[in-house]
Amino acid sequence: MEPIELADRLGRWSAGRGPLYLLLAGRLRILIDDGELRPGLRLPPDRRLAKALAVGRSTVVAAYDLLGAEGRVVRRQGSGTRVAGSGMLPARETTHSPAFLQLLEPDADVIALACAAPTAPPPEVAQAYQHILPALAASDGDIGYHPAGHPMLRTAIADRYRARAVPTDPEQILVTGGGQQALSLLARALLRPGDRVLVEAPTYPGALEAFREVAAMPRIGPIGLGAVTPAALAYVVATYQNPTGAVLSALVRQTLVESARAAGVPLIDDEVLAELGFPGADPAPPPLASYDESVISIGSLSKIVWGGLRVGWVRAPAPVVARLARLRAVHDLGGNIPAQLAAAWLLRHLDPLRERITQQRKQSHDVLVTELTERLPEWEVPSVSGGQTLWIRLPRGDGTSFAQRALRYGVAILPGAGLDASGGSIDHVRISFVADPSALRHAARRLAEAWRTYQPPERPAPASSPPLTV
Question: What digits encode the pLDDT tens for the residues 169-199?
């Protein structure tokens, strides 16, 4: 491809905010992902493209290198830079991320405590499908394409928000294929290459991946203290935070919302875990959206029901929802309608299921905390009042190398470094307690054995992005 032709396709690529190489990489990424730059196409050499774009060669080199690291282009000495295609990508070392291995290469001999999600659907899922079959069979005049979600499910979600003192109309709901898709859509709609995103430290790693995918720069802000500084977006898990299990107080929530409004920063409240409070625990304060209707909320049935259902949502001002629906329609004309109808039934019958699930989670939590405390007295194992993970600081060594040691003993846990955009939390691990008590007892015993043989490296193991973590 000639440089002038590519320059024409790039359009006003430099009109955004941030370093030029990120803006250039971002526009090239869109052209590649949309198929405008076909696999195998040879891109212009660094110097010639730099001349056509009136930028320094280092800008083009950095953009190409970033796309190469993402696997979107292949750069080889002597043959230039080409758009990646089948069979072109160079071999890479296999990642040692326990969560990655457990999702892509499940091992029956490994107790999976890196992924925090139910291991089987509850019987209510089958009941929901049985209930909606007659209505599905009788449906007529519906082609099944609903980019914003089926009206019945949007209404059910809006009703549940109203029951939580958050006035909501169905037009303020976008149904998604889970909470992760909700994050990805919001990142693509609200962020541009080089944008600054405020996050907690640590935070949900899937959010960091969604922001980095659009070349945004997650930055640590004093979100936990209720302050928001100028940024393109702020993201917080206010209730049963992933991974710490912390709950922001009502005062901090109000201060946070007011600070975001004053700074003009869109605020996302990830509520995927919000209904997982343990029986007997103090109820969590109201959602952030109850303080200001402009707050964007994310929800999902993946953690409280089952990840295989793939139903999540965004609650936001109607114009934001309309924008997200248009964006989704480019790639997906609408989600699975039977699943959405089943989800609508489940939402209207969720409270008894939630009570049973949270009781089970509390039992599993108590078992794991007790077992780890008894078998690993060196560790400080904090208990939580809801959610599904423990955030543990190791007394020595680093989380990455110990997670690798634990995997050899048959337990997958998540190192903390990949959950912290500040580069901290190296000495932490995240351990899920979403498993039956028997499995958790076995896991605690194996972790104790791994700890007895663990020798910290002279230098902490390097942090890596935690792919496919939940």
Answer: 999 999 999 999 999 999 999 998 778 899 9
Question: d(Cα 217, Cα 26) in Å, to the nearest integer?
Answer: 13
pLDDT band at 219 (very low <50, low <70, confident <90, very high): confident
Contact 335, 154 (CB under 8 A): no
Asked if 311 and 301 count as a contact pair (C-beta separation under 8 A), the reply is yes
Report the DSSP beta bridge partners of residue 73. 83
For residue range 54-111, list pLDDT tens digits in order: 888 988 998 898 888 778 899 887 778 999 875 454 444 333 444 545 555 566 689 9
| Of 122-136, 270-284, 390-404, 449-463, the least confident | 449-463
C-alpha closest to that of 125 among 451, 318, 280, 346: 346
The label of the residue with tokens 């299990």 reads: 245
**Helix 337-348, helix 151-163: angle, nearest 10:** 30
CA–CA gap between residue 32 and residue 71 (Å, rounded): 11
Q: Quick check: 269 and 298 in contact, CB under 8 A? A: yes
Distance CA 454, CA 461 (A): 13
Task: Please name every residue paired with 83 in a beta bridge, in sequence order, or none if there are none.
Answer: 73
Query: Given the structure tokens 């509390």, which residue do they identify?
Result: 362
- Which of 102, 103, 124, 120 has the alpha carbon at shortest distance from 111? 102
Between CA 73 and CA 460 the distance in angstroms is 31
Rounded-to-integer distance, Cα 367 and Cα 439, Å:
10
Residues 368, 433 contacting (CB under 8 angstroms) = yes
Q: What is the pLDDT of residue 19?
A: 79
For residue 157, give the nearest of 39, 289, 329 by alpha carbon. Answer: 289
Rounded to whole angstroms, the Cα distance separating 468 from 470 reads: 7
